[in-house]
Amino acid sequence: MSIGTSERRSGGHARVTGSQKFVADIGLEQMLHVRLVHLNCGHARIVSIDTAQALAVPGVVSVLTAAELPQPMPRYGPVFNDRPVLAVGETKYHGQPVAAVAAESKEVAEAAAELVRVQHEELPGVFTVAAALDPASPLVQEPELRPNDPLNHTNVLSERRFGWGDVESARADLVVENVYTFPMITHFAIEPHAFIAAAEDDGVAVWTPTQNPFQMQRILATVLGLPVAKVRVHALDPGGAFGGKQHPKYEPLVALLALRTGRPVRLVLTLEETFQEVRRTSCEIRARTGFNRDGTISFQDIQSDFLMGAYADIAERVIDKSNYLGCGPYRVPNSRTVVRALFSHTTPSTAFRGFGTPQVSWAHESQMDDAARKLGIDRVEIRLRNLAGKGEAFLPGDTPADGDWAVSVRKAADAIGWGTALSPGRGRGLAVAVKAGATTGASYSIVRLHWDGSATVLAGTSDMGQGARTVLAQVAAHELGIPHEWITIVMGDTATVPFDLQTSASRSTVFMGQAVMRACQDIKAQLKQMAAELHAPDAPVVELLRARFSAVRGEVIGVGSYRGEYQPEHPLGGAPSFYEFTCTASEVEVDEGTGEMLLVRHVTVADVGKALNPQHVEMQDEGAAVMGLGHTLMEHILLDDSGRIRNLGALDYRIPTTKDLPLEMHSLLVENADGPGPYGSKGAGEGGLMATAPAVASAVTEATGVVIRDLPLTPERVWLAINEKDA
User: Fold this and answer.
1) C-alpha separations of 592 from 247, 606, 703 in Å
2) pTM above 0.85?
């Protein structure tokens, strides 16, 4: 039986041996190499661009500026068409390109890019939440890009309000009020962003490690003025994405360059350039929470301000979706959340694993800890008293709680040894988080059952290392009754595979898994009809296929789909199809003399419905936990007064290494087969990082007595807090 077993990862050997081909490994005949031209400041007016010296370099084929592009400048984005192909009039963030050089070699392109002379005037910028809200600050986005928006003369893209009950009249025995900050961090995928484009017949082909090839195809077609059918996207399996490769970045630029030069072009960003192109939304959250004497929540009043960056990208969706669940997985009788999406002269933020949930859980879980300390209630117990029960509509009128979440909390508490004695300088913390799964969207699959009993599955999902190829093969193998090894999964080519909305929101197992399962069921219905026609109702599948196709050949083709329809009246455009619930517990030892922390034990528990491949799920949660420890303990982008990123690259921006990992790490699962995916599965893989920060911070507080509400919990920050307390 394939379902529920840890089948070996498809493509895993190629990944670990280095034989897998990534976009940067592709070479096309007569390919040109592209280098971008940047300004070393956060916000500047472009006075003039002189490309003469660059064009004179032997081997330079083209130097593209905004002046050479179609007018008005093509703009694009997943929701708002606000991002220009190249900077127009001014740069909006540190590293925004003002020109692109295409040359016969990478070295020539780099040398020529240095010779492009850009006269510019540095301008004041908006780099913080306070500046974005200050009416005296410069506008980041031109008002004419939002002509009918009453907020177009502010740096607020949108203000959304969620809630129920009456916060103003709610009574409470204790009111906890605090401000929490979450920093800018970068995705830091091992594979850099890379893009190739080439003219193809009367259209264009693009090679990109995108998570969303069909969205890419649609946006490129719009920018280039081509029919969708004339844009082909080759979405190679990326070497890490985490949301950073979800939406278009420089694909429109390389496509325009390819069409302009008539030759294939290739752009590979440096790690430093990647820092300047994608990041997680930073935020400030003011939380005011009322509690009754028994620890139950009376009300939750939240004001969130999220700094999106220079362009909208998908950040508004991140902000809305996460703050819609701003109260967490708790039973809250009165709720009010006001959230603002703010423009700034900083790197545009985009989707990032957890999709805003780590930011909001940092606030609501820290509030729970604060209340537990003041009320004298155990930190696990206060959560259990407030946690929504299975089937309870903790969001009034919306999808009810789809798991027995208290089981996960108790499992995590037991695994961390909650309540047992601790050595001096050690503490334990526990936190929970919930993320709304995919709401709307469509996934289609085609399954081809060949005459010898093997099968090919066509699916538009991207495999970013999460194991989608393996799990979809397991579903097909189980449904068709054939070995897992007999199945090939085809992905990543819009000219070959059927439509899939996107690979995000932990949706692939549920949406594409259902599409593959239904395609296989379509095949089984055809086989049943075939058996009746051949008067062989009990014949094995392979014998039936050979009997049917031995003379004329052929195959059985099944088609399946799974859709979540748009609901305009819903705040998110559709009800969550499932919830990704997690509980994280951590034991930490703190050296009060230095502020350094040793992670003794770290536990994540995920409510997954059914683990189709348990080892895959556990590895995803372990990887997510390590990412969560990054933004908890060390990761943050630092800006100077001009909006320049001070810690570009791997030397000055720290991510966890093996030396930073917990001495013990455990990924545990709760399986009740209560999800909407195949065999009761739910989405998984983001939960491991969603509650990491509040769990670790809670442990630090127990170990030291200090409460820190600003991430990351660097040794310096912890040491300063300890010394301030002692003083």
Assistant:
1) 44, 33, 9
2) yes
The closest of 460, 485, 475 to 514, measured between CA atoms, is 475
* Tokens matching residue 712: 């990351």
Q: Tokens standing for 665?
A: 């790490």
Distance CA 559, CA 355 (A): 31
Which two structure tokens, joined as six digits, stand for 124?
Answer: 């004041």
Residue 543 three-state SS: helix
Q: How far apart are CA 287 and CA 8, in angstroms?
A: 45
Tens digit of each residue's pLDDT (9 = 90 or more) over 636-689: 999 999 999 999 999 999 999 999 999 999 999 999 999 999 999 999 999 999
Q: Which residues pair with 237 in a beta bridge?
A: none
Instruction: Tell me the catalytic residues.
Output: 686
C-beta atoms surrounding 46 within 10 Å: 19
> In order of start, what are the domains of the chain with their CATH numbers?
12-16+439-564 (3.30.365.10), 31-123 (3.90.1170.50), 282-438+572-726 (3.30.365.10)
> pLDDT per residue over 455-501, tens digit each?
999 999 988 888 899 999 999 999 999 999 999 999 999 999 999 98
**What's the rounded Cα separation, in Å, for the pair 22 and 569?**
42
642 and 371 in contact (C-beta within 8 Å)? no
Q: Are 18 and 87 in contact, with CB atoms under 8 Å apart?
A: no
DSSP letters along 652-682, please? TS----GGGS-SEEEEEEE--S-SSSGGG--
**HEC letters along 395-424:** CCCCCCCCCCHHHHHHHHHHHHCCCCCCCC
Q: Which residues neighbour 350 within 8 Å (Cβ) at sequence distance 6 or greater?
A: 243, 244, 246, 247, 278, 279, 313, 314, 315, 318
Cis peptide leading into 712, omega within 30 of 0? yes
